[in-house]
Q: What sequence folds into this?
């Protein structure tokens, strides 16, 4: 009798989960159609296949929803006849062993708070949920993405800056060069350094960026601090050169643009998501295989516009090698208690099942109308004794409501890329200057 009762409860629970997912996808008919099209077994794509604007329908089951829209010409942009993808064998490069081992030793659990926020308990580093399962599978995958492996220090200097170029609906293009220092100060697993940096007892991640060009915007900078207490809102400071001082911005600033691009503050990270875990929930929509630009593909994405099929901004096959990757698709939304006035109603993330980086995103506005689609292309980068690790990134965001796009990349046309850990110049290892709010006042001095 007890076994039958348990079986009935499990049936109801599974049915309730399925119904909830159906309700969510019914809110977005395009997403519902994509989930149906991409489900089930499909014929494999052979290495060496070239997917073009003429034959893409043969491979549409492997294309994220927004990618299908680009190839189908449903948006402002049209794919040039020569645009396409070169498919290479899938090559899995797992995160460093120390990072994976730290995750296996932990006993992390999900916590739902009375105010509607979410959290985790028991986390001390590594991959939080090595084998995420229900309940809360979608949120566990979001946590895995949030704490996905990254080197403890990455930097871009004036010699290897982050390039971002914006194209408006008149096809005018403007580019900006950014210096940056991203520093992980807690939960670190890289060899030779302590797990936690004593200089930052409350912080686990800092993000510093500064405009290097054009000249009229030079020295504009910002610093974001993310705290070990996930319930503490991140601190965002912006340095304004004309004021010669920095301003501290509140939580609503998460919806502001980053230096005039289509990236919002909650977008601007190499794993594709920068919003934290306290104010978000995520529902698991399914496991799929998609075409993705990731792994050890060639450099050269910074050769703009020559390396792209314009005006759509699609990567040329000369540097973009595509693989078929396993992804977990999650629907990320603000928790109901924090949803009012937030910019995004839903963010569909195609999360790599091995690295837990986002590989593609389809983003909806507050009314659940498709707003942006985004290619996220993490690139394996040499990191000394760690081997090849994900750190470099190239991304393209298409604003399909305003006919606007942004390309951003850590690479330049010569293949120079992000600097990692010991390769970061001594000047950029200065903790006070690049990882504390007080460091912003040193700009222009």
A:
């Amino acid at each position: 009798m007890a076994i039958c009762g348990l079986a009935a409860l499990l049936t109801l629970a599974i049915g309730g989960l399925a119904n909830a997912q159906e309700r969510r996808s019914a809110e977005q008919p395009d997403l519902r159609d994509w989930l149906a099209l991409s489900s089930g077994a499909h014929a494999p794509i052979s290495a060496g296949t070239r997917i073009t604007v003429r034959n893409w329908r043969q491979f549409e089951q492997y294309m994220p929803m927004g990618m299908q829209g680009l190839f189908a010409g449903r948006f402002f942009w049209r794919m040039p006849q020569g645009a396409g993808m070169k498919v290479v064998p899938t090559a899995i490069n797992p995160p460093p062993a120390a990072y994976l081992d730290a995750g296996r030793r932990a006993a992390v659990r999900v916590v739902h708070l009375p105010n509607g926020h979410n959290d985790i308990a028991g986390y001390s580093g590594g991959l939080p949920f090595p084998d995420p399962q229900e309940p809360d599978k979608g949120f566990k995958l979001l946590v895995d993405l949030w704490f996905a492996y990254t080197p403890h220090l990455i930097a871009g200097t004036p010699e290897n800056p982050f390039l971002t170029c914006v194209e408006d609906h008149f096809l005018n293009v403007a580019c900006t060069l950014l210096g940056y220092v991203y520093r992980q100060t807690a939960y670190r697993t890289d060899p030779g350094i302590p797990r936690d940096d004593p200089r930052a007892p409350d912080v686990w991640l800092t993000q510093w960026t500064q405009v290097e060009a054009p000249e009229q915007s030079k020295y504009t900078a910002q610093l974001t601090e993310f705290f070990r207490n996930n319930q503490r809102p991140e601190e965002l400071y912006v340095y304004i050169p004309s004021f010669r001082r920095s301003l501290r911005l509140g939580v609503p600033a998460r919806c502001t643009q980053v230096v005039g691009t289509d990236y919002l503050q909650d977008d601007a990270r190499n794993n594709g998501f920068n919003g934290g875990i306290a104010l978000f929930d995520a529902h698991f929509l399914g496991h799929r295989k998609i075409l993705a630009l990731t792994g050890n593909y060639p450099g050269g994405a910074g050769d703009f516009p020559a390396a792209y099929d314009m005006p759509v901004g699609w990567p040329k096959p000369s540097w973009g090698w595509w693989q078929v990757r396993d992804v977990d698709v999650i629907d990320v939304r603000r928790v109901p208690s924090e949803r009012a006035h937030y910019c995004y109603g839903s963010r569909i993330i195609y999360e790599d099942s091995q690295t837990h980086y986002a590989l593609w995103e389809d983003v909806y506005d507050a009314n659940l109308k498709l707003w942006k689609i985004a290619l996220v292309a993490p690139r394996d980068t040499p990191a000394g004794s760690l081997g090849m690790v994900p750190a470099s990134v190239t991304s393209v965001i298409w604003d399909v409501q305003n006919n606007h796009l942004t390309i951003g990349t850590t690479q330049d046309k010569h293949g120079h890329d992000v600097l990692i850990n010991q390769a970061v110049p001594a000047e950029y290892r200065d903790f006070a200057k690049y990882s504390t709010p007080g460091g912003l006042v040193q700009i222009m001095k």
Notes: Residues 1-20 have pLDDT under 50 and may be disordered. The longest strand covers residues 280-293. Helices lie at 2-26, 29-38, 65-72, 97-105, 137-146, 431-435.
